Amino acid sequence: MPGFGRVDVVTIHVWRVPLRRVPRALVAVAANRRRIRRTPGVEFAKVLVACRSGRFGIRDADATRWMLIASWVDADAAHRFGHSSVLSAWTRGAEEIWTATLRPLAARGRWSRRVAFGCPAGDPWAGPVAAITRGRIRISQLPAFWRSVPAVNADLVERDGLCIAFGIGEAPVGVQGTFSLWQDSAALTRFAYGGAPHRTVIGEAAQRDWFAEALFARFAVLATTGTIDGGDPMAGVS
Which of 22, 179, 204, 215 could hold 109 in an S-S bridge, CB 3.0 to 4.6 Å? Predict the structure, then answer.
């Protein structure tokens, strides 16, 4: 089963480059994308373009903001990559960098036909959590999907317990996702199952078979460093 390996930690790197450095960033990402997949200890990796904070649509994609999601067999492998020439080439000259070390708590679905985050046992966790959603939307369902986005996103950004959230994406256009940080699992659960807009979308997506492939994963936040939009999204979270 592709991608069905042990995943001990997941790392997130978000970096923002000056507008003038976007062409150089594109070249660096293209040149080194395959190198990370050959890095010892990596199980899964994706380089994405991120939206501005609190934004989720295609028009909100920010060419100056990049995100790397990587799954690792152990913390040592993740640490070595954190000091690698590949990551240095991507983040060199960045105006801002934020990193997070996560442990998978729950995951269902696949990403590019891979089990991206292993098979976590669902251990209890009392601290802050992160969530990643990702879907490959059927072309015929794109209009219905995008009509549903504004109401869900408006509900999301107003939720108590949300630290930060933004859209993430990769080509083609039908591949979309979100990344969010929460004070605790209870806050995430209240949004996922307690909000009327999100519950409605879940029902419609299942009924109309919106997604050719979908993934939802929840993670324990072990450590973070750096800033996003000039602030620490985990400030004030114990």
Answer: 215
